Every structure is written in C-alpha cells, then in structure tokens.
Amino acid sequence: MECNVTSESGFDLIKLSGEVDLQFSPQLREKILGCLKAGHPLLIDLAKVSYIDSSGIASLVEGFQTAKTSKLQYGLLNISSTAMQVLTLTRLDKIFDLYSSTDQFKQKLQ
Amino acid sequence: MITTVQKILACQFPACAEQMGNVRHQLREALGPSGQPEAVLNHLVLAVGEACMNIIQHAYGPHDKGDILLEVEIQNVEIQKGEAQTTPEGSSWQRTLVFRLTDFALHKTCAEQMRSRPLDEIRPGGLGCHIINEVMDEVVLLDRQGGPGNVLELRKRL
User: Fold this and answer.
1) B interface toward A at CB cutoff 8 Å?
2) Nearest CA in chain A to B117
3) In chain A, which residues have their Cβ closer than 8 Å to the Cβ of B127?
4) Which residue in B21, B43, B134 is closest to A19 by CB distance?
5) What is the pLDDT of residue B2?
6) Is A8 on the interface with B (CB under 8 A)?
7) What is the rounded distance in angstroms from the CA atom of residue B13 to the CA atom of residue B11?
8) The domain containing residue B95 runs over which residues?
C-alpha cells in the first residue's frame, strides 16, 4: 500500500494505492486520524486501490465517525471498482459521501 | 450419488498479516481456471482473506502463534434434480468450491463469533464475518481432530 498525504487549499487529500489489508490498515488509520485531529477536512482518493478488506474499511469508518464528531467534511474520491464492491457488500456505499472530483468536494466546503 | 473432488490448492503459512498478500495471490491463481467472473473471484478472495484475518486476530490473537492450512477443492456431486449443470452424458452435477481453513490455536472458536453484526450500526470492526456470510453459501465451524485448533469450511456453489 502507498499512502500519500497532500495539503490542498482548505482540505487534506490522501491518495491510496495498492492493497489495503491488515498489514497496512493501521498506517492508514494513523494518517486519517492525524489529518482530522489537525482540524482539516479530508478527502481520500481510492482510484488506485486494488484490494481493500474489512480492516481497511474499518479505518475509513473510524475516520467517518471522527469527522462527524469534529464537524469536518469527509469524503471518498474516485473509488476503484474493487473497493466499490467491498463498500457495496458492507452497505457502506450509502453511508460515505462519494465524490468524482476534488472540485465537487471543494464546493461542499463552501 | 457420486462425488468427485478436485484439489486445487493446499498451502500452509504462518498466521500473520505479512503473509496475506502472497496467500491471496496464490488463491487467485488457483481459482483462475474455475471460470468464475472477475467480480466473483474478488469476492471469494476477499472472504477467504477475512477468514484468515479472523484466525490471526482472534484464534491465535496476540499471545499465540502458529500456522494456517488453506485447502481449496472443487466438489462435483451428482444429483437427481435442481438447477445443476448437465453433462453430455445426461447426468446432473452440482459444483461447489470448498475452502477449508485449519488453525492449530489453543483458543476454541465458537459459532457465535462467526455471526454477522447488524449493519445499521455504523462502527469500525466486525464486518469480516458479514463479508464471509454474504459471499459464501455455507459456513461451517468444526473441531480439529487430533489436537488443538479449529477447522472452518466455507462453501460456494458454482
């Protein structure tokens, strides 16, 4: 798994790629919570995720809950078909805010 | 009733997260010739990965160490009726993929631990069993014969 965090104007962007499984999900959790604890809205790009399991999904859900508590915008961007299969299987596709562009997320921030 | 069994994978590996990428790769290779669509293969690999993760986190846990034995076979059962495939000879067959995961942990896994949790509770964790139960047609937990451990059998009709 690769997990790159960049600061965009008004929010943080995490770009994930590769396999997000039990080995790497603690690292993802740490990055997500780090951004949110700094008080930054967060967008997570899943376009290049080739595999994600329930431990990776749990990190995304924990971020969702933390963002909600902290009243910060939080969303998922460009979800790969493999990741979408898992979100659908766990019915979380209806829970997360899903975006197809960073501009869409920026509009939500205004 | 005639049953034939075609073994397509047997691998034993240390129960730790670092092994899982390689195991998933081996599993995908083994399932390739079964002719299932990509989406089904993704689900099967995911569900078996979740079962391995449960063994790592809950059967062995932080204080025990050991291996997982993963065996995969295709069972062909001749049946009389139903929506089974028909061979050129006219016999009807039900093909089932069987994933058998054996651990050697001292902790005894109980069936209760394999139940799905309600999905309307939005919280991290506990989704693995839901995924397994959703993907597979049958989930059976057995005692390992001849020593400590658990045998989890996941069955998917093709």
Assistant:
1) 17-18, 20-21, 24, 39, 42-43, 45-46, 49-50, 53, 56-57, 119, 122-125, 127-128, 130-131, 134-135
2) A90
3) 54, 57-58, 90
4) B21
5) 72
6) no
7) 7
8) 3-157
Residue B79 confidence (pLDDT): 77
Do A87 and A98 touch, CB atoms closer than 8 A?
A: no
Close Cβ partners of B49 (under 8 Å, ≥ 6 residues apart)? A21, A53, B20, B23, B24
Q: Which domain holds residue A13?
A: 2-109
Count of structural domains, chain A: 1
ipTM above 0.95, yes or no: no
The shortest CB-CB distance from B124 to any of A21, A58, A86 is to: A58
pLDDT value, residue A4: 95
8 Å CB contact between B101 and B51: yes
Which CATH number fits the domain that encloses residue B116? 3.30.565.10
- For residue range B30-55, what is the model confidence (pLDDT) as tens digits? 999 988 999 999 999 999 999 999 99
Lowest mean pLDDT among A34-38, A90-94, B112-116: B112-116
Helix or strand run (H / E) with residue B30: helix B20-31
pLDDT of residue B19: 97
Give how many domains chain B has, as a whole number: 1
